[in-house]
Sequence to fold (311 residues):
Amino acid sequence: MFEMQATFFYALPLKLFILIANSNPKSVITNPLLHYSITPTIQRNELPKPLNIFFVGDIVGQPGLELAINLVPSYVKKYEVDLLIINGENTTEGKGIAEEHAKKIFELGTHVITTGNHVWDRWDSRKVLGADRRILRPLNYPRENGGNGYIVVDLGEKGKAGVLNVQGRVYMQPIDDPFKTADWAIAKMNEETKVIFVDFHADASAEKMAMGWHLDGKVTACIGTHTHTPTADGRILPRGTAFQSDVGMTGPYDSVLGMKKEQALKRMVMQTPHKYEVALHDVRLCAVYVQADAETGRAVKMESVVFPAFG
Ligand SMILES: [Fe+2]
Ligand SMILES: [Fe+2]
Fold:
């Protein structure tokens, strides 16, 4: 019987065989890997135009900045990084980014500094935002605040790449719709490039995941920032967008989100204000590496980085 079936199928024209195979819903349902098997297995050398992106999570204070200065150059070398992006919203004493610290981050070869809600905590951050278009603030804040929310970077022979900074609204300021804002900015950047990196600065995991699905297939990567805790859900979504709910902070983990735990505990336990100070110990770098196909803008490879690793 098996021989008869085999002969029957062998004798079928190829087109008819494909039609029969595809018309059997069981072949799709019973093979959940079928959908994903074409995405992550492409090797670097097989890509027509690989473009390597390295994104460093929120730098917190001097300890985070010093570790980034020490470690980022070796990651740039390791991953042959073409586009380096660093979130700097907590660089200066945990709140905002002063000019001198932005300069140090750019000295690493950084193409774009992204930020978030804390960039507004320092008045001198606003001066920096206005002076340098490579330092982004979330685009969906009212435009009267000044600053730039997205940028297209010219990477020479590697082509162009867009970087967008948007902020969520769940448990945060009720600013403009980040989904529609992202769609608008992506359409603008698509006039120049298909490679687009999104730093989605948001608090709620649900909102971040929703944004990841909303942008799947539209951007190269959508990586969350703000919660200062790296999540273990980094992956390439089915339509080719690298996603991680939160990259985590680059700063001291002997802390509560980078701040000295003693004061943070007092705020929680006593329910009264106590001055935050940047913590000092257990400093780690959190980052994400994404390799894009520069022709299509799809992510083809992704790695989450925590150094030193936990545990
Ligand atoms: Fe942050
Ligand atoms: Fe933040």
Residues 50-307 form a domain with the Purple Acid Phosphatase; chain A, domain 2 fold (CATH 3.60.21.10).
